[in-house]
């Protein structure tokens, strides 16, 4: 585990270990980029309340340490719990998901980013968690949203909180119909917003 918390003088992750076998957290610091941080994080990754504009510099894979546990629970349709995954919340300067991990074991969360305007760069696949982008008031479309998500069929795979965004029901329905979002482990395409919310 590697934690940096409330350091107003820290402006760079240069010098961080290249590999963190466990969780990595950078919170309440004025860093402007994740470049220089660890390239491998086997546990969860949290960058919360920073000055980053995107996720460039983040590892390509997050949470591999929990791969077997997550895949086993998914096969049994058992609840996974939370606090596993990639959390990029409360970053007021974040405007894009560019550079986000390609594969996340656990949740992928970009909630409470008031200037986020683009989901492009989101993970290609999420296993065992949900995609959380609640309270992003400047988000105007869902282009780039991860559509390959393995999660329990009886739980939400998205937590959009979209009433706090500029998205309309029509915008969402149109995107979902085109994207054919996979619903949990059923392998069936979700055709409507209600299907996705479960």
Features:
single chain; 198 residues; alpha/beta; 15 strands; 20% strand
Count of individual beta strands = 15
What is the end-to-end distance? 35 Å
Indicate the structural class.
alpha/beta
Number of domains: 1
Radius of gyration: 16 Å
**Which percent range describes the beta-strand content?**
15-25%
Provide a brief overview of the structure.
The chain is 13% helix and 20% strand. The protein is an alpha/beta fold and 198 residues long.
What does this structure look like?
The chain is α/β, with parallel strands linked by helices and 198 residues long. The chain has one domain (2-197). The protein is 13% helix and 20% strand. The chain has a 7-stranded parallel sheet, with no helix packed on it. The chain starts with a strand and ends with a helix. Mean pLDDT is 83; it is low at 180-194.
């Amino acid at each position: 585990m590697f934690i940096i918390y409330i350091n107003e003088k820290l402006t760079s992750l240069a010098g961080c270990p290249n590999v963190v076998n466990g969780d990595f957290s950078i919170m309440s610091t004025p860093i402007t980029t994740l470049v220089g941080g660890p390239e491998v994080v086997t546990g969860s990754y949290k960058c919360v309340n920073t000055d980053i504009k995107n996720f460039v510099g983040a590892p390509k894979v997050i949470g591999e340490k929990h791969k077997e546990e997550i895949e086993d629970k998914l096969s049994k349709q058992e609840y996974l719990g939370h606090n596993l995954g990639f959390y990029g919340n409360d970053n007021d300067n974040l405007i894009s998901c560019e550079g986000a991990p390609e594969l996340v074991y656990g949740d992928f969360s970009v909630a409470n980013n008031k200037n986020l305007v683009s989901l492009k760069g989101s993970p290609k696949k999420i296993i065992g968690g949900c995609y959380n982008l609640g309270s992003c008031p400047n988000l105007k479309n869902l282009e780039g949203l991860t559509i390959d998500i393995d999660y329990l069929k009886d739980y939400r795979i998205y937590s959009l909180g979209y009433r706090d965004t500029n998205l309309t029901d029509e915008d969402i329905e149109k995107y979902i119909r085109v994207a054919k979002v996979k619903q949990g482990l059923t392998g069936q395409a979700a055709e409507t917003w209600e299907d996705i919310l479960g």
